Amino acid sequence: GLPSTDSPPLVLAVLPSLSLxxxxxxxxxxTMSSANAAFLNKPETALRRAEELISINQPxxxxxxxxxxxxxxxxxxxxxxxxxxxxxxxxxxLQLNRSREAKxxxxxxxxxxxxxxxxxxxxVIRHLIDSSEKRCRLAKxxxxxxxxxAPFIAGDKPTETIVxxxxxxxxxxxxxxxxxxxxxxxxxxxMSTDPEKVQRxxxxxxPALKFLWEVYRAVLDILKSNSKLEKLxxxxxxxxxxxxxxxxxxxxxxxxxxxxxxxxGNLQKYGGVTLARIxxxxxxxxxxxxxxxxxxxxxxxxxxxxxxQLDVASSLRLYTEGFRTVEDIYNIxxxxxxxxxxxxxxxxxPKAKIMAAYYEKLTSLFWVSENYLFHAFAWYKYYSLCxxxxxxxxxxxxxxxxxxxxxxxxxxxxxxxxxxxRNMVAASGDRLAIQSTVEDDIAKxxxxxxxxLLGFHTREPSREAILSEIRAKNIMDDVPEYLRELYVILxxxxxxxxxxxxxxxxxxxxxxxxxxxxxxxxxxxxxEDDADDNTLGRYVQPLTNVLLLRLISNLAAAYHTISLDxxxxxxxxxxxxxxxIEKSIxxxxxxxxxxxxxxxxxxxxxFGNAALESNEMRGQLSTLAKRLTTACNIISPPDxxxxxxxxxxxxxxxxxxxESEHIATLERKIxxxxxxxxxxxIVQEKLREEERQRKAEDLARKAEEERRLAREQKLREREKIxxxxxxxxxxxxxxxxxAMGRNVENMTVDQLKEVDTAALAKEHAExxxxxxxxxxxxxxxxxxQLDYLVRAVRIEELPQIKSEYEKKIKEDKENYxxxxxxxxxxxxxxxxxxxxxxxxxxxxxxxxxxxxxESMIMSARKIVHEKLCKEEDEAAxxxxxxxKLARARRRKEDEKRRLxxxxxxxKREEEExxxEEERQRxxxxxxxxxxxxQKKEDARMNAQRERENRERQERAQxxxxxxxxxxxxxxxxxxxxxxxxxxxxxxxxxxxxxxGGYGGGRYEGGRRDQGPPQTNSRWGN
Length: 1021
Fold this sequence. Notes:
Elements: H1 9-24, H2 30-39, H3 43-55, H4 59-70, H5 80-96, H6 99-113, H7 118-145, H8 183-191, H9 195-222, H10 230-246, H11 250-270, H12 296-315, H13 319-340, H14 352-368, H15 372-389, H16 395-410, H17 416-423, H18 438-454, H19 463-472, H20 481-491, H21 499-511, H22 540-558, E1 561-563, H23 564-570, H24 578-590, E2 596-599, E3 604-607, H25 615-618, H26 620-635, H27 641-656, H28 658-739, H29 749-754, H30 757-843, H31 846-956, H32 983-996, H33 1007-1010, H34 1017-1020
Antiparallel strand pairs: 1-3, 2-3
Helix pairs in contact: 1-30, 3-4, 4-5, 5-6, 5-7, 6-7, 6-9, 7-9, 9-10, 10-11, 10-12, 11-13, 12-13, 12-14, 14-15, 15-16, 16-19, 20-21, 21-22, 22-24, 28-30
């Protein structure tokens, strides 16, 4: 038995160690592992366990554990532990390049902390973005230096495990083609001058870019409608846009713009733009969860994000996305305008500084896209806002901006609409004006729509409109003198011989101009072109082109033909080649500004009016000839008598041959129809034959394709089965090797194949048995030692126990005697006190009064007692009555249930009886049928035997001959037959009898098929 609690300390000290050894030696620990799994779901424990797994280089297990904690539904109250868990989880995702797991973890943490701790969510998102951007920078530096490094985690040190970008790091997503396997990337890599750099970028930089892009997408998707973290949303969006611009990711930039446009559309559609819907609690009621409505700050943030988007679109030369961004900015401004119209909503209009920055961005966009018209209008709006609201703008800055406005307007090339607008009043019906076409109307509509989106003052922007605005606003007063002279030369000068000489020094002075046109410093090295060039010298080249067009226009007005050498002499000093001049002339001709032809054979340029080449001018000579002929016939009419006689003879001949011509025409028509039908028939037959051949070829091709697919399917299935079998064998081998304590991570596939599974299993079983036997031996040894120890302890403690027992009996006896004496003494004292008190009470007659008081109290209590007894009797009678009624109801229900059960039992017995009777009737009918069949069979067999006996008797008697003589059997066939039967029937019956014999006649196997014997007189007649 187990030792008692009174055992010495030595025994109690031995037991814990023994119990621990017994638990450690237990072979089965599955229950302990499940308990650990449930215990690790606690956040604090899971965090410690994950850190331990990371310390032993098992990040995948740590990631799975943290993901299980984040997705668990047991703990849904936010705490700082969860913040530490998600940060460690995201660092592991960054280390292992698991973008999909990072996105899932962010969504889980968003659901947990969005309402309880939005600040923690912001901290986590910023940590993830900063870590991803830092890793991307380090990867870019490593790729530029030519180093092969592993992806970096959030810290400064590289990870210990190198993850391949094509295995674990790549999500099974459609975006992978844009990073790894894009056809364009493959083609460019073959044409690259440094293929090693391309390989380094693919192996080192592209996985980091892919992870950072997925992080941006996940963050924007999480924060798309969260008003509390709206600033974080826009800062993340701007970082993503700058990421696309820095790394030249055009495809990702388009997708990012589409995603942000969709978010804006959802907020505009469901976020309560035009209606301020407020519920009873005072909160804005809209259909977007987490969105608290449009405010001035949110509109300003959206505008700033779109400005960054406009910059990046301009730097990436994605002009379509730039124009769509302009539409987004227009929609945001419309939201602000609609919100200001709502009563009670106090949202100020966008600040002038923001609008000025907007138009400044537009100037760069339209300059890069070479849209000089809207570039000039954007400059005009920017200059107007700065002049009105920027009180601290210096005179030099105002001069530079006014100069930029004028130069941008002068850079606009003249179009046919400008020429028409200029000549509309002077010659409204002049044929020289070329009519507008459908393409012109479409272009005009597009320009009007763009002008509306940009907020310009006119719906028909043109060169004349912007120049008239410049003249009306007196902007020329702020322009330097040499630019005014240049304006006069380009707009008012008509002398083609000296306009180039006058404009050349002015253009040289403008080219040397270095003043900037905006307060924002130009960023060097951001783009290869002059998109960020804010100097006035960039307008020299467009002004040179406008000057050439103006020169050609003036030459066309003064000359009809001019030599090419003279044109070259006139354009000397402009710094342009004759090819550029020729290109400008061709472009002006295509835009229908001028009608110019270059004759290289004659070495000249021919000018002409475009109206002379129109359709009206091409038929002038023919019209003149017809009208002159009509006038001559009126002046001297010709003799018509011979013409009339010839015409009458012709008509008579036609009338005489009309019938024959009609018949010949009908016959020819019939022949033509027959030929056509024959040709159609031949074509149809040919088509049917081709269709038949095509169908046959399709069937053959389909059959061959099906056979090929079946072969490939079988081959794939065999390969799949073989692969699964190999994987299962490898897993089993790894399991055995791991259980045996060997390291399988460094083993290759070939080494695993060489291992024998049966030998491994046998060795593993032997080791397990040996380990089990060793554990059992240790348990037995420990039990034996414990037995010896307990026995020795009890032998040694037996004298002590006896002495302690005797001592305890002696002490108990003494205590008992002392307590008896004390108790008797206390009882005697109490009796003496009670006697004294009784004597004192008797002297005062207290007991007499006590009896009276007692009788009075008892009488009152008796009345109460009787009343209570009466109530209890009534309640007992009522309860008895209720019990009686309940028992009656129960007996009635039992009787009813019994009757129902008896009825059901009776019906069941009746059904069983009827079923039994039916079965007996069927059995009796079956026996009767079998008996009748047996009787019929016996009668048939008796008749058959009688017939066979009768036939044998007839064959045994010789048939009588016609003349009364005996006929031998060999000659009976030639003679007559008795009873009307023929000889052939006798021979057939006899042959059947001889062939079958008597023994085979009982079964009638062949006789039923042959019919009755022909010798029988009953069948013959």
